[in-house]
Amino acid sequence: MSLYAYREFIASERACQRLWRQLRWPRGIRCPVCDGQRIWRMPEGGHMDYRCRRCGHHFSDTAGTIFAKTRTPLTKWVLAIGLFRVGISAQGLARELAIGYKTAWKLLMAIRTAITADPLLTRLAGYVEVDETYFGGRQKGKRGRGAAHKTPVVGLRERGGRVQSLVVPNVKSPTLRAVIRQHVHPGTVVYTDSYSSYTRVREDGYRHRRLDHAQRFIRGRTHTQSIEGYWGHVKPQLVARHRSVSPEHLSRYLAEADFKFNTRNEPDFIGLVLQKLIEPYPLRG
Asked: Which of 2, 9, 97, 207 could serve as a FRET partner for 124 with CA atoms 20 to 30 Å apart?
């Protein structure tokens, strides 16, 4: 569903509450304490409250979620997720939703945190390209590997599939090999450039293919053009929308870019993100 398809929910808080209720209670309303299904419904102040007949626990549709204490209407959350998909800064979101900058920043970070909490459940496999890059503002001095005052990031892209970007402390061999072991299934064909830190990747059970970029960039199926193309897409967007990103929050911005890429064919992005905002607080049973 597109942002336009959500126009009913953007225009009506009550419609948003119905949508939220459907997402929150897919198996019917259950007590978050005892998982009881015998529930009293108690309309109160424009929203629905509940009391469990078994244990007497009092709760609401938003209880136990980040929405429980927010004063931002659900309509603005839905619109914010739609704008988040196409890309927007906190300052831009504040203007569009007529809210304060701090509220807009917290809202966007809540969304990023929710999707960051969704790690890849299965490791990458098949044909995977690995490349490292550096994020940081333009500064005088060395560029690329070994550049000062920049944050190293490793990217892994499954050809025809998913991508994952990870902030790392350095690009030494033990670090890069550990990243590959954690996120790539053994036996996978791994493509890298000729950087010395990748020399021993084959010892970890991978079919390693290397290419010296000083000589050529493509040799048959051996190349890292896909992950390098991804860097070429992500880096300018971060700079254009956010000007600068602190190392402290870089992993969340990268997770945002990865999530958008990996869900690029998702027909209902807004519904998916709303579900992610609920998932960190699952019901038992």
From this structure: 2
